[in-house]
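Hi R.,

Here's the chain you asked about this morning:
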Amino acid sequence: MYNLTERTARIGGTVSNCRFAKTKGVSAAGRHGARDRQSAVPDVLAHYGVVALLCRARNPDRKGKVEAGVAHAQKTPLKGLRFEKLEQAQAYLDRWEARWADTRIHDTTKRQVAVMFAEEKPNLGELPLERFFP
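And the predicted structure, written out as tokens:
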């Protein structure tokens, strides 16, 4: 939930939809029927006006796109690093993103990531006046 709200603020707008690999990630009830962080996801999506798109089971063409980002984040750039504070980790990631992630050539599109984001940014929706707080 923190990641959804933080990412939305950091990119400066909202997307119209978000793809999820697992249905339970966007269900209204958490594990064992109790409200937990995961069960707040539908509220976060509604607050930012985002529609959840669920991947069909056994459909690797769609699910692979969702999980590829997770695998990439786990392999780089934080693998093996430890930080005392979350702010230190975020500062490291900001530098890494500016120096490496944004400047690299995307494998599928063969275009620079930062250039593609600059083209897509005007299509982002407006942020709500208030951030989401559960």
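The chain has two domains: 1-66, 76-123.

Let me know if you need anything else.
M.
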